[in-house]
Amino acid sequence: MSTLPPKRAPGARVVDFFRRHPVLLLFALTPGIPEYLSGSTAFWPVVLSPFGFLLFLGLNLGLYGAGVLLVREAHVRWKKGWSTILLLGAAYALLEEGTALSTLFNPKAPVVGGLGVYGHAYGVSWVWLIGILGVHIVYSVGLPILLLGLALPETRGQPFLTGSRLPLTAGIYVFDIVLLVYISHYYVDAAPLLALAAVAAGLLWLVAWRMPTGRFDPPRAAPGRGPRFFLILGLLYFALLILVPGIIREVGLPAIVAAVADLSAIVLLFFGIWREIGRSANEPELIFLAVGTIVPLAGLGLLAQWFLPVVIGPDLLAIWFFVTIWRKYRPPPQVRALPVGGMSG
To answer: Going by C-beta distance under 8 Å and a sequence separation of 6 or more, which residues neighbour residue 75?
Structure first.
């Protein structure tokens, strides 16, 4: 009789690896979701230009990875709710898009496109600002922290940046921002505004720190709607970010209309999630919400790189990730009760 231990599936070994190194999973989720799944940072250079790919990966990890680690650490140490993560996600967006890359102020920034001019007033591209805040709050900060907690629930409430790791991470984050300021994205005409964005981000950190614990926790103890409802809200979120300002701009309405409409739609969607998601026993709903927000983003990234679709690799990993956590949290099948007298003896 064989005494060899049973072989473990490769997926189980991957889960064990990330359980031992949860920070690496967080680094896979961000910049993985906002940059590589979306196509914002092209994934094809991993084949055609590996050195360039690694260079951009290092810059992204120094910005996204370090930034989200700091946000999560504040959330854990302050023992605050998700409202704190949303505020700190907005602060992260101001530091990246305002101070580091100046896309909030440079009307000719390549990634901004027509929104650099449409709604640009007093040195700020306001329509772009609203949309990009929504992108970073959800995709760059909120989703990675949420999915880490779902995948590795034992890490919830566990600080990662103990000892010298906290100042080291903060130093890497600041260094990356300064480095990006002096790369090609630097916008000389907006130097005072770059500093203003950093000050505004600092004020958001202060507000998040001082906010009373539980002030904006969801009102329900358990979810008020099923997972499909939140899947639809997730799909709507991406559509609102992209379609609302674009359609209003195409029909020639003033930028203030686009800004108010986009902001109102996002706030209403957030309110709907907050009202119905519940404070506990909501893992299936959160998974469907995450899937809804990510699927259109990944589809857009695949279309943007169709000529060399190596991004299919990360897409397949994302599918495997969600299938794995869904198996952990999916509700048990409901057994239909037989009516009285429905069986004869």
So the answer is: 84, 85, 88, 145
